[in-house]
Amino acid sequence: MIVMTSNLGSDIIQELSGEDNYESMKSAVMGVVGTHFRPEFINRVDEVVVFHPLARNQIRGIADIQISLLQARLADRELSLELDEDVIETICDAGFDPVYGARPLKRAIQQLLENPLAQEVLAGSYHPGHTIHVTLSDGGLVFK
Fold it and tell me: How many independent structural domains does the chain possess?
């Protein structure tokens, strides 16, 4: 099975997201999809699912999952990661975009947390047994 996602029609989804008629929203989105893909391609697609925009609390849930996966990767190196609540909220704020779904959140986690943390780990700043505590200072993340 191949899964493909797209943001085609996201503007329509935003406009119609408050309405209860999923089928009309799906039909409108498929009209946009039909202008971008040839009928031969669309005919080969087994199923189309049109997602509603993500809410702020759903972004937070996704962030929690992604951070726990990062914590598991660090645990393989015998490192612990603790984040203050305001750090998680800052990441969620940076990654919240109801039009583009969870992709901006993934980029925010990479840019704000994973990349600087990876640089510190590679530089030898942390050793097995360390707990890395992430706080917020002047709007930026601080690793201790």
Answer: 2
